[in-house]
Structures are given as C-alpha cells and as structure tokens.
Amino acid sequence: MAGFLNGVKKILRGDDQKNNLVFIVFDSCRWDAYQAARTPNLDRIGPAEKRYSYASWTSPSHYTFLMGMLPHQSPKGVFASNVYREEFSLWSRRLNIKDVEFGKFVPQLSLPAFLKSQGYRTEGVVSLPVLNPMTSMSAHFDRYDLAPSHNDLGVILEGKDDFPGIRITADDPGFYFINTGETHYPYLLPGETAEDLPHISGVHGVFKHLDDFLKNPSEFLKGKKNDEFFTPEQFRAFYEKQITCVEHLDGVVGKFMERCPENTWFMIMSDHGELFGEEGFFGHGPIFHEKVFEIFFLEGPLP
Q: Is residue 7 in some structural domain?
C-alpha cells in the first residue's frame, strides 16, 4: 500500500520531476552493531540489508560509491558484469530518470558527473580527513567541504555559524553526499572529546602522537615499551558505544527528514565494518576478516 501511495503522489506531482538524492555514510559502522541499535526513523525509509563492502577502509569504499556502485550482496552463480549492469539500472528508479545505464556513466565513471549532466546540483560534506577537498574525491561537485567536526551529522545537515547546512528544494534536484564519523573510532557523540574517555593505551596513544612518530619513527620509539592491547571489556565498551552512536544518528536523520520535500530518495549505509577484538583484530584497513566487510545498507523514498 505504501508503494502504491508513493506512486500516486509521483503521478500527481508529474513523472518528470527528478528525485533529490541524499546519500549518507555512517563511517566504520559494522552490520551487527547497526542491527542491535534502535532505529525507528531509518526503519521508516526501508529495511536494512546485510551487504558487503568492496574495500576495508574509508577512501577506496567512497571512491566506489562515487562510481555509482554500492555495497554488494555477494551473489553466487552470476557473472560480475551482470551484477554491475543490474546495479546501474536501479538508478532510474532512485532518481526518477528514464533509462539510466552503465554507458551513461562513461567515460568519467562518476556518479556526480552523471548527475550534473542531468541538471543536478552536487554537494559533498565529509567528516573524515582522508576524504578532504584536496583529494580527487571532490571532482564534479559544486560544493565539497570538510565538516567542522568529525562527529556531528547534525551540523552537516543543519549548519552552524559560517558553515552552511543542507538545503533541499522540490524544484531543483540535488545530490547530497555525506560522510559522518560518529560511528568511527573513538565513537564520540557531538560535544564529547577523547579526554572524556577512559585512558586507553595502544591505538589512542598512537593517534595522539602520530605526527611525532611520522617525523622520526626511530627516535620516537626509543625507550618506549610496546603498548598493551585492548582488553575484552574495552572492546565490548567500543561495540556498545558504536550502537549508541547509531541510535543518535537515527534521531538526527529523523529530524532532517521533517524538512525534506516529497521527491527525496535516501540511501544510507556504512563504508566498511570494524573489528572489536575478534581473532586479535581491532579496527579496519589492512585487515582481511568478514566483520570488516559486513555492512548495513538501506534505501527508499521519504516516508
């Protein structure tokens, strides 16, 4: 019934009206953490699926997204070329544009470039510095900014001081590509700092002194003992905090949905998973483990 009513709404407003596209990435959010969270607002958009990332860390995953490719379902018994073809064909439904196919993304193989050719304004706001505007990620965007905080989706969407938020209208289609870091280590909510956490050796200490280490690794390591790894209790606390961050983001997205026009299509997912001590692994990146490739994916029209 909901799909039928959405179809009626589309007919009433005109079949040729393109959809706004809101694309939000919860950085590092693993599948089972998302599944454990309470997400009443995101559930209204569509059911979350378990999918798999094409890469184990932020940059290559986002490059894949900007090619127009999404986390995959790891299907058996099919050629990869068929999977890609079917994936690109789905853009017609998402955008309300007829006959979108892989060939229309050539030669740039760029989702924002394709959307600009269709009359879209393209905006990107990212939280992780590895995606900053000096990288090639920013190509084909009308606006591409590094957010003022690595862990505040609310500021990205609503704006603050001199930082503009996301403004969506019904008449001028826009593509809004957003990366937010609440679900990335160290799993901080807005207003929290690393100092608010219990003192943790290991990764947190390395991050704190990373510049000094990179300038002179041998001198930095002189006389230093190996940091102890995280305890099972700390790993569990990280996992539970990521769940808390997902629930916070659900509320932020719910508030944002209230001011989106009807012709808005949401795509929300993680770029890769995270390891919380399984088989001695923590984090993501140079890790080959199923938990770092398991992610959540959901999409659908504005409820």
A: no
